[in-house]
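hey
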């Protein structure tokens, strides 16, 4: 975004800066459009509830999520155990609540890290051009040639089991798509009059990219990140289900679904409640992302 201290100089070069005065009203219009959507409000409410559960989970879990009680194994939902117990007698409600922190933290950290790496690589590639652009985009092409699940599985299997390995595998898998999209947006933006005017004023390339181009292309990718979070949640659950993610006894929804597959008919609640948690989280991110997309889309 063009800075106020440059407004008069750029205006003298014939660049329209009147739109800067409408920045705050535009934010209010975006918020009003977002809150005016019923589905967006439902998604945001679900998301706030999930974040609350993830943050305050240790304070609201009725039992120790890792405590094994063999005599209580495979008990159906009751007043003592609202979601029932698993094959080791652990309280399923407590494990679902504790799993929210692990699953959401993985999704949020992965999404933000992949977006940050993608923005840096894509912005440098799109603005620099030449051999730098060619080199970076060939790396992106190689990563995009593999299905996300297969690539993440290979990286996680190489690094070993655990939270950190899964996080690194997810970031290495997902940043390339963000880089390709950011590169396209920067290529379209760098030839705009306000960018040429800033260059004519002698502004350094890094400042042009950071202060002028990126603020004007970042909003669509914030929306994209909110929509991608549901995909990340499913990918994390799939990797945990395949046994290369967070390991027992740490509660995680994908791992809980994997543990329940042998008890599908004897204890369906073991797979039902973690699966419902995954479905609600995916729905919350999808509804919130779609509402945000409709709010910032000028065509609406």
């Amino acid at each position: 975004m063009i800075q106020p201290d440059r407004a008069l100089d750029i205006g003298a070069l014939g660049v329209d800066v009147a739109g800067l005065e409408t920045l705050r009203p535009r934010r209010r219009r975006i918020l009003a459009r977002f809150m005016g959507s019923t589905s967006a409000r439902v998604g945001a409410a679900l998301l706030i509830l999930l974040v609350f559960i993830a943050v305050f989970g240790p304070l609201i879990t009725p039992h120790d999520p890792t405590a094994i009680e063999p005599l209580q194994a495979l008990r159906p939902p009751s007043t003592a155990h609202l979601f029932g117990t698993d094959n080791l007698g652990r309280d399923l409600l407590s494990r679902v609540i504790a799993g929210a922190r692990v699953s959401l933290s993985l999704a949020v950290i992965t999404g933000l890290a992949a977006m940050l790496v993608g923005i840096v690589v894509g912005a440098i590639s799109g603005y620099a051009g030449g051999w730098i652009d060619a080199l970076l985009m060939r790396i992106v092409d190689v990563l995009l040639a593999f299905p996300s699940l297969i690539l993440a599985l290979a990286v996680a299997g190489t690094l070993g089991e655990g939270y950190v390995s899964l996080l690194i595998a997810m970031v290495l898998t997902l940043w390339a798509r963000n880089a390709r999209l950011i590169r396209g947006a920067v290529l379209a933006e760098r030839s705009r009059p306000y960018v040429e005017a800033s260059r004519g004023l002698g502004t350094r390339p890094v400042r042009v990219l950071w202060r002028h181009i990126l603020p004007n292309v970042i909003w669509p990718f914030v929306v994209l990140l909110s929509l991608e979070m549901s995909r990340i949640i499913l990918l994390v659950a799939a990797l945990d289900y395949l046994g290369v993610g967070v390991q027992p006894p740490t509660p995680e929804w994908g791992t809980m679904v994997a543990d329940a597959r042998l008890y599908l008919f004897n204890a369906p609640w073991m797979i039902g409640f973690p699966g419902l948690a995954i479905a609600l989280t995916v729905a919350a991110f999808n509804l919130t992302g779609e509402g945000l997309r409709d709010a910032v889309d000028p065509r609406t």
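The domain at 51-296 is CATH 1.10.3720.10 (MetI-like fold). The first helix runs from residue 4 to 12.
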